[in-house]
């Protein structure tokens, strides 16, 4: 994201034995190779850091310090440096030095337990909530906030961006509902966990699916109208005891037509019903095409930079750059 927004981003990586190009998630970055166990390479990396605004590291706590690249060392020679430390568990706490992945970080924060049917194991929501939502997005916000603060203080600072912290922030609405007795730790009775008949997916006649998100009363009323269901047949929208019957009514209806037939039927309505598309199908979706959400760059389909600004045009994705010399990078 930072490279998409115009930052000059350099990725320092260990020497690679393969010549395969890096993935599109590395687009817009210059790449240098360094052996951080070699004092000469560490010294060269330190010279690079001395010219940087931001340093991002993702080692376990204490590793950067042992390499001579910890915040005390780096900030001593570059006091304006924003030093971002991205980890799963954070720099402190009993798990700080344990290995982990997205699924682990969302499991201990209560998120994973809240996702999936009541009679089956919790379902991992890809690795979007921990790695990218709680991790990358929180880290980017922290970096930008620290850079803004630096304008008044003239000093950088260290950011401890733990994925478990970020995940907890993402679930603020659920914690608020829980405090008001509107969210249960038990799956199968909550509005957003796929239990509510008006907020879930339904299988259609062709085995594909539609997504229904008719939360508000007016949208729910339009859903019933388009489906041809009388309000008295489903009962009050928020009466949990009536959800099993409501779900069966909706499921029976959606099973009568194909996904694309339902998509055409609901197009232009406020019933909040959309087709569930594969990634291949998403490329041709009219809304995504109209906004150029997915673009071809460097010979690959990939998401376009976001968000969009009124004065500065949306940048074109910059291709991956070849490995450059550590000694010559950022030299005047």
Automatic annotation (TrEMBL):
It comes from the Bacteria. Keywords: Transferase. GO terms for molecular function: transferase activity. It holds the Pfam family CoA_transf_3. InterPro entries: CoA-transferase_III, CoA-Trfase_fam_III, CoA-Trfase_III_dom3_sf, CoA-Trfase_III_dom_1_sf. Residues 302-324 are annotated as: Disordered. SUPFAM superfamilies: CoA-transferase family III (CaiB/BaiF). This is CoA-transferase III family protein.
